[in-house]
Recover the amino acids of this structure.
């Protein structure tokens, strides 16, 4: 979908219009369609960026408000790209406003626990442990690294598309994706070692 | 980590994502061929990327959906709904005008048909009485003086 329509090569701070991009422009959706078709995407992006359900709900709500207010200004182009730019800008606004998100690190004996205590096969528990570690690792990344990794690996954007959404030069995009992944890898390795030591 | 490893390590993500220029691809490939350490690092980086890409999608909380519904512009309607409502409004106005006009004129749009009963038997007897022994009657002669 994103690869099909492409992104604007460079986007400034203004996210009020979608811009004429791609060979198959996305038409302007109705408010209902924004909620039904893009709601989950908006919430998941907000969740990965903010790192907890409460801040994710607040951020997603801010995105919906801005989208609804500016829907008549959206020029059929890449609606996904427009949403990403709005979410990115509001996320960075939120970070600046709050100075810090609620990212209290878990205690060393907590992070290795699966998020759910319900019984299940060992591999399911291991999977949940891994996901919990990943989420914790994402929360620990700096805002820019997290944004780069989330857009690349969770949203599936290309480097060029990320440069379009964020306004970063390609070298910066490449560097932030790599450093973000590297820090995540190191976090997972530490978590794994701690888990081994605990057993 | 050797100096060459440090020089090329930052290119590993772009290598995985196939975002390197041709000269950089050649450099990284040549180095990976002979460096087990970098191969291990690349493999664990690829595993991390794979884990990230398989993270589960979260459902929107119901409370957020309710808030979003409340935020939706009140004039917001789908185009076909908007059109249907306009057509319905025009039809309603038309029906109202026609009905009002009919009511104002005092008649019923569709009056019940009247049944006229013709007393054929009475007319037949009357005809026989007046015409017995006479030539074929005509209305003028029958009603004449």
């Amino acid at each position: 979908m994103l690869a099909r329509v492409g992104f604007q090569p460079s986007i400034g701070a203004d996210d009020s219009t979608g811009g004429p991009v791609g060979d198959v422009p996305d038409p302007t959706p109705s408010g209902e369609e924004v909620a039904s078709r893009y709601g989950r995407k908006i919430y998941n992006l907000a969740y990965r960026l903010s790192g907890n359900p409460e801040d994710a709900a607040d951020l997603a709500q801010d995105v919906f408000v801005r989208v609804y207010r500016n829907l008549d200004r959206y020029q059929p182009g890449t609606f996904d790209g427009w949403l990403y730019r709005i979410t990115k800008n509001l996320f960075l606004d939120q970070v600046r406003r709050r100075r810090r998100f609620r990212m209290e690190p878990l205690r060393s004996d907590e992070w290795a626990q699966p998020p759910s205590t319900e019984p299940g096969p060992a591999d399911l528990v291991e999977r949940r442990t891994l996901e919990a570690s990943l989420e914790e690792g994402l929360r620990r990344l700096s805002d820019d690294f997290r944004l780069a990794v989330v857009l690349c690996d969770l949203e599936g954007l290309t480097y060029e598309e990320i440069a379009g959404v964020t306004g970063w030069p390609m070298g910066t995009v490449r560097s932030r994706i790599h450093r973000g992944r590297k820090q995540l890898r190191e976090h997972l390795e530490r978590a794994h070692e701690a888990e081994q030591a605990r057993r | 980590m050797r100096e060459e490893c440090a020089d090329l390590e930052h290119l590993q993500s772009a290598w995985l994502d196939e975002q390197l220029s041709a000269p950089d691809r050649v450099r990284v490939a040549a180095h990976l061929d002979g460096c087990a350490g970098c191969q291990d690092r690349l493999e664990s980086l690829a595993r991390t990327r794979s884990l990230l890409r398989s993270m589960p999608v979260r459902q929107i909380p119901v409370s957020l959906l309710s808030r979003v519904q409340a935020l939706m512009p009140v004039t917001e309607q789908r185009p076909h709904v908007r059109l249907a409502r306009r057509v319905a409004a025009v039809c309603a106005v038309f029906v109202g005008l026609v009905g009002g006009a009919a009511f104002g004129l005092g008649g019923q749009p569709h009056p019940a048909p009247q049944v006229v009963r013709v007393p054929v038997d009475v007319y037949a007897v009357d005809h026989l009485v007046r015409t017995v022994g006479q030539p074929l009657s005509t209305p003028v002669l029958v009603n004449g003086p």
Observations:
- The mean pLDDT of chain B is 78.
- The two ends of chain B are 144 Å apart (CA to CA).
- Chain B touches chain A at residues 10-14, 17, 19, 44-45, 47-49, 51-53, 55-61, 63-65, 67-69, 71-73, 76-79 (CB under 8 Å).
